[in-house]
Amino acid sequence: MQEGYIKFNCHWIKAGPVSHDHTREINVWRDKLYALGLIGVYNDGIGFGNISMRYEGNSFIITGSATGGFKHLNENHFTLVSSYNLEQNSLECKGPVIASSESLTHAAIYEGAPEIQAVIHVHNFEMWRRLMNRVPTTRADAAYGTPEMAWEIKRLFSETRVKEEKILVMGGHEEGIITFGKDMDEAGEKLLQIEAGFRAC
Predict the structure, then answer these.
(1) Number of CB atoms found within 10 A of residue 194's CB
(2) Domain definitions of the chain by residue range
(3) What is the four-CA torsion angle of 141, 147, 152, 157, rounded to 10 degrees?
């Protein structure tokens, strides 16, 4: 596992905290997912899971790199991804922390449909294993945090019903699952419905 390591070229503009008004709604869901173990930290100290919300246009606010281990986040744990380039595997972010290693994956999802306003990326091996190829799934040779993963996301939007299903499995990123929606509640509830269904089995 190498979650939390930056794989893209990042121009980080170190700045003050993101407004609490913009992080409050994200943190409601982040706390729920952390409590369920869907966002957190492995025994080796590497954090996993990230969450974001569209800001303006294709810019978005996202949890910072290596924040998975914090039980609760505040505005100092978020950054604004103001621009990006999938072809060049680069982005610019502004805030007190550097953007999550999955930022370009989130960017590709926001590009998929203008109505998408929130994206959640979690880890759960059993859900990942059972959902593989039952919902839209990226190819196994597309590693997380790479341009290949971003292009795979774009492929899913053009070739599958991922836009309607609002969930995808990252075939090349063990445990990785993503949900999204028109707001944070829709993205979160989609994930909780699936998680509850597996717990009931």
Answers:
(1) 18
(2) 9-200
(3) 170
Contact in structure between 139 and 152 (CB atoms under 8 Å)? yes
Per-residue pLDDT of the chain (201 residues; tens, 9 = 90+): 344 445 688 999 999 999 988 899 999 999 999 999 999 999 998 889 999 999 999 999 999 998 999 999 999 999 999 999 998 889 999 999 999 989 999 999 999 999 999 999 999 999 999 999 999 999 999 988 888 999 999 999 999 999 999 999 999 999 999 999 999 999 999 999 998 887 766
CATH architecture of 9-200: 3-Layer(aba) Sandwich (3.40)
Q: Are 112 and 163 in contact (CB under 8 A)?
A: yes
Q: Which residues contact 170 (CB under 8 A, 6 or more apart)?
A: 105, 128, 137, 138, 142, 144, 149, 176, 177, 178
Whether 16 and 96 have beta carbons less than 8 Å apart is answered as: yes
Task: Give the strand pairing for 50-54 and 176-181.
Answer: unpaired
User: How far are the Cα atoms of 65, 66, 157, 174 from residue 72, in angstroms, in the given order?
Assistant: 15, 13, 33, 25
